[in-house]
Specification:
single chain, mainly alpha, Arc Repressor Mutant, subunit A, three-stranded antiparallel beta sheet, 69% helix
């Protein structure tokens, strides 16, 4: 891909921007011994309460295996609890511990200020358009497009 193609590629621009934001947030979270993906799980548990792994995977746009690894790391740090589900022996219920809630609350204050600063750095109309475009890209049925390209022997 040429430099010009990269500059004009939505996918590439989203990819590099997401990486940069994730790296910035991970640097911020380093003193707390947590990564942005782990913090996302804490956010989901704070917002939705006790959840199954499947629910957490859905909320965080991750597969169940990735969420399971994230939860395992949070368990070791004593930020979450894992209990057997009383209604489904194959399922676990994940919840915040008091230590996890305290961490979420402490980090949350800084994240809200960071997000406020980000929002204020972009004019309202551009922010709304950006969110609309990103939502559209996320909701596109990429697998259908790829299957059609394969069917047409293009890819």
């Amino acid at each position: 891909m040429s430099s010009e193609e990269k500059e004009n590629s939505l996918g590439y621009q989203v990819y590099v921007t997401a990486n940069q934001l994730r790296n910035n947030l991970n640097n911020f979270l380093k003193p707390y011994n947590i990564y942005v993906e782990q913090y996302g799980v804490l956010c989901s548990l704070n917002e939705h309460g006790t959840n199954t792994l499947s629910q957490l995977a859905e909320y965080n746009f991750k597969d169940k295996t990735s969420i399971s690894r994230l939860v395992d790391s949070l368990l070791k740090k004593e930020f979450v609890n894992r209990e057997n589900s009383p209604t489904d022996r194959r399922s676990y219920l994940i919840s915040l511990t008091p230590k996890g809630q305290k961490l979420y609350d402490e980090i949350g204050v800084c994240f809200k200020l960071y997000e406020k600063q980000q929002n204020e750095s972009v004019i309202k109309e551009e922010r709304e358009t950006t969110i609309k475009v990103l939502t559209h890209l996320r909701e596109m049925d990429v697998s259908r497009t790829i299957k059609q390209l394969q069917k047409d022997n293009i890819c």
